[in-house]
Write a structure and sequence with these properties.
The structure holds 2 protein chains of 2 kinds. In chain A, a hairpin with a 2-residue loop joins β7 and β8. Chain A has strands at about 5, 10-15, 20, 25, 30-40, 45-50, 55-60, 60-65, 75, 85-95, 100-105, 105-110. Chain A is globular, with a radius of gyration of 13 Å. Chain A is mainly beta. In chain A, the strands form 3 sheets. In chain A, strands 2, 5, 6, 10, 11 and 12 form a 6-stranded mixed β-sheet that branches. In chain A, strands 3-9-8-7 form a 4-stranded antiparallel β-sheet, with no helix packed on it. In chain A, strands 1-4 form a two-stranded antiparallel sheet. Chain A starts with a strand and ends with a strand. Chain B is mainly beta. Chain B is built from no helices and 11 strands. Chain B has strands spanning about 5, 10-15, 20-25, 30-35, 45-50, 55, 65-70, 75-80, 90-95, 105, 110. In chain B, β4 (about 30-35) and β5 (about 45-50) form a beta hairpin. Classes of the chains: A mainly beta, B mainly beta. The interface of A and B includes residues 42, 46 and 49 of A.
């Protein structure tokens, strides 16, 4: 079956620190990969995506590269801000667009000033 | 325009009661998904509609769970004879045809006592 494993949280960083949140996956078929973010008091929203191997998704200073050889999609940001404090979910779907998402457990990030 | 809305936002039910959770997707979105999110976990897929057709209900945990979308817009998730293990946040998401991005609602937090 399909599954996503992401690093356990919580992660606590100081402002301007470098962020990495690891994500690995197993999938039957060729998955598309996503990072979703949930800010406090808000719903889940798509942060970035990559639909084929070696694609890099990027948004709001965050990046993740689809690595088929290591089945990974690690999230990185060079300099985090207090406003990045949120829960981050790695997810995949198989079968193209408009298909169900399989999520990791989520990683809580807290950025202190 | 308005995003995905869900009602009620909070529901407390006594064990054995039936509940109905409503989702209003973004206008024109043909795809609609329901997910269940237990505390501290990532969302888990329950069921998927394309317009009024329920194309995948493989994630529904038991025959006590039933979902419908009779006119291809509003959807209702019904849980009969609620049990304590049904306590979770129920998320609804919608998507345009051909799009990878799912737009999530704020969720309904169900507590079964």
């Amino acid at each position: 079956g399909n599954s996503v494993t992401q690093m356990e949280g919580p992660v606590t960083l100081s402002e301007e620190a470098f962020l990495t949140i690891n994500c690995t996956y197993t999938a039957t078929g060729y998955p598309s990969l996503f990072w979703y973010v949930q800010y406090p008091g808000e719903g889940l929203q798509l942060l970035l995506k990559a639909t084929k191997a070696d694609d890099k998704g990027s948004n709001k200073g965050f990046e993740a590269t689809y690595r088929k050889e290591t089945t990974s999609f690690h999230l990185e940001k060079g300099s985090v801000q207090v406003s990045d404090s949120a829960v981050y979910f790695c997810a995949l779907s198989v079968g193209g667009s408009n298909y169900k998402l399989t999520f990791g457990k989520g990683t809580l990030l807290t950025v202190n000033p | 325009g308005a995003g995905v809305s869900q009602s009620p936002r909070y529901k407390v039910a006594k064990r054995g009661q039936d509940v109905a959770l409503r989702c209003d997707p973004i206008s024109g979105h043909v795809s609609l998904f329901w997910y269940q999110q237990a505390l501290g976990q990532g969302p888990e897929f329950l069921t998927y509609f394309q317009n009024e057709a329920q194309l995948d209900k493989s994630g529904l945990p038991s025959d006590r769970f039933f979902a419908e979308r009779p006119e291809g817009s509003v959807s209702t998730l019904k849980i009969q004879r609620t049990q304590q293990e049904d306590s979770a946040v129920y998320l609804c998401a919608s998507a345009r045809r051909g799009s990878y991005e799912q737009y999530f609602g704020p969720g309904t937090r169900l507590t079964v006592t």
